[in-house]
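quick one before i forget lol
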Amino acid sequence: MGIYLNPGNRGFWESIRSEIYVDKTGLIACTNKLLNTEEKFACVSRPRRFGKSMALKMLAAYYGRGCDSRELFAGLKIEKDACV
């Protein structure tokens, strides 16, 4: 069984070190705009084999309180976003 609550940032750490990683941290900026609004429930749907698990690992690393993930996001698009 996997860890479903507070999974940490290990999965995202592995993702950004792989050769096929594509920076999709812009999804975090879109998610931040929805927080504390009536549109707070969002569905992120993508075709099969299109990065849903990686996106979940990224969001878990960003919003998780159990670990400090600042260095993982250094140099990525979200670091340049003024709203974060």
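fyi The chain has one domain: 10-80.
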